[in-house]
């Protein structure tokens, strides 16, 4: 969707407003089950709030965790989502001389954190059933896209009517790679000079669990 022109956002709320307009243009309101907007926490939540409100959707979270390279935890080479299997960036594994077995300890650690966050954000609730619904997965941006891929593949197994990925900014390789996992990828800006998601926000403050709860509670009461 992006023409490569860089966009800068004051904060996630502003990014959410712009993204909501773009999603509304491609996911119009219609009779039938309401769309389901699923945020990737934590950063995707305030953006997803704007998107869900704009298209009249149900809002929840889909829990996913990045699996970092050994000694470089910020470099995502895999991810897990909900109760799905690990998804790995195979070219990255090859480049680093790693196998999935080498990452078993990291996978176990991230599964434990995923379970903690699932309980923190949803308690005993299950994620709303995405079957036969339009599902929009929202994050604040994509670098490698591996976390979003894990979420999309997990959701695809639940047979949504249409699976959309929507983000304000992403790297061009992530946008292109994820086009095979989502029916539609909406990315407002995919600048060639992309280095990190945070460089395209004036305020990219890291969010807390409390921030997620406030955003979800606020949406529930609107």
TrEMBL record:
<keyword id="KW-0808">Transferase</keyword>
<keyword id="KW-0328">Glycosyltransferase</keyword>
<dbReference type="InterPro" id="IPR000836">
    <property type="entry name" value="PRTase_dom"/>
</dbReference>
<feature type="domain" description="Phosphoribosyltransferase">
    <location>
        <begin position="22"/>
        <end position="182"/>
    </location>
</feature>
<dbReference type="GO" id="GO:0016757">
    <property type="term" value="F:glycosyltransferase activity"/>
</dbReference>
<protein>
    <submittedName>
        <fullName>Phosphoribosyltransferase</fullName>
    </submittedName>
</protein>
<dbReference type="Pfam" id="PF00156">
    <property type="entry name" value="Pribosyltran"/>
</dbReference>
<dbReference type="InterPro" id="IPR029057">
    <property type="entry name" value="PRTase-like"/>
</dbReference>
């Amino acid at each position: 969707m992006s023409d490569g022109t860089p966009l800068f956002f004051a904060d996630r709320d502003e990014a959410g407003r712009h993204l909501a307009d773009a999603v509304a243009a491609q996911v119009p309101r219609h009779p039938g089950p309401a769309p389901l907007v699923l945020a990737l926490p934590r950063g995707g939540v305030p953006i997803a709030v704007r998107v869900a409100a704009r298209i009249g959707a149900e809002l929840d979270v889909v829990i996913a965790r990045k699996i970092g390279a050994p000694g470089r935890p910020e470099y995502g080479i895999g991810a897990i989502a909900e109760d799905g299997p690990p998804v790995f960036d195979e070219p990255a594994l090859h480049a680093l001389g790693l196998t999935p077995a080498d990452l078993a300890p990291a996978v176990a650690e991230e599964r434990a954190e995923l379970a903690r966050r699932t309980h923190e954000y949803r308690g005993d609730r299950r994620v709303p059933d995405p079957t036969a619904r339009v599902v929009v997965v929202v994050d604040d941006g994509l670098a490698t896209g591996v976390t979003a891929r894990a979420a999309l593949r997990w959701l695809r197994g639940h047979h949504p009517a249409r699976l959309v990925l929507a983000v304000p900014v992403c790297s061009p390789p992530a946008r292109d790679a994820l086009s095979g996992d989502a029916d539609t990828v909406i990315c407002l800006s995919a600048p060639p000079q992309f280095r990190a998601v945070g460089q395209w926000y004036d305020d990219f403050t890291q969010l807390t669990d409390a921030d997620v709860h406030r955003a979800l509670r606020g949406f529930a009461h609107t």
